């Protein structure tokens, strides 16, 4: 893949994005495992430069829904629309080709490899002689790491020796280097201290400015209210509702999660406030 094309200016991408054009729409999505309906007729969407928190108890269907978007699970029925066009997502490779990247709680990093090797793992840059182009990978890695965190210098340190926040830099860098438009983040601040949690929050704000849309799976209400623009609550495989985060209280969100109760007098929304 041509690195020049991959790494077109983030500012240019942000400037040329139509923030009123929906990035992804999941329409009437269904998924069953045996006789258990894990996801039932769920509709959810995401716009450029916004964070939508996807909430619910364990077993509510939120992770299953996001894994279908990521290509980890096949969709039983329903449609996925990416940038206004119907997409067929059957595998993680299909999702990546559509500009969707996932960052799981485990980060899926190879602990014995350094940051550069993890950035290009499985998608290494090659010379014209089909050997690893270490010089170009180092140069490209430096650009993307510095874009996210100017203090990040541990390019050749095995990632097992990095802090949790530094590992998040590597995982997020891997996603955005390959031009992710849609990012699925699963508990990005779990087990991080306050300083590293603040670092991840800054990374998310920077991605929003560049027009990246983020689905955030989290149980942390502080993260939800600090980072998300809208929130979608699921219970027993169904969508309870989608609301602007600023319009609801924590108690109302907990009522949706625990009881499946919609907040009274609060309008649902299918798009972010601009």
Describe this structure in words.
- It is a single chain.
- The protein is α/β, with parallel strands linked by helices and 274 residues long.
- It has a single domain (3-259), classed as 3-Layer(aba) Sandwich (Rossmann fold).
- The strands form 2 sheets. It has a 6-stranded mixed beta sheet with strand order 6-7-8-3-9-10, with helices on both faces.
- Helix 6 (134-148) crosses helix 7.
- It is built from 10 helices and 10 strands.
- The model is unreliable at 1-15 (pLDDT under 50).
- The radius of gyration is 19 Å and the shape is globular.
Radius of gyration: 19 Å
Q: Give the distance, in angstroms, between the N- and C-terminal Cα atoms.
A: 35 Å
Shape: globular
Total DSSP helices? 10
> Can you identify the CATH class?
Alpha Beta
According to CATH, what is the topology? Rossmann fold
Name the assembly state. Answer: single chain
The total domain count is: 1
Helix content: 25-40%
* Poorly predicted spans: 1-15
Name the strands of the widest sheet in spatial order: 6-7-8-3-9-10
The CATH H-level superfamily is: P-loop containing nucleotide triphosphate hydrolases
Biggest sheet: strands, sense, closure?
Answer: 6 strands, mixed
Mean pLDDT: 88
Number of strands: 10
User: Percent of residues in beta strands?
Assistant: 15-25%
Query: How do the helices and strands follow one another from N- to C-terminus?
Result: HHEEEHEEHEHHHEHEHEEH
Mind telling me which CATH architecture this is?
3-Layer(aba) Sandwich
Which structural class best describes the helix and strand composition? alpha/beta
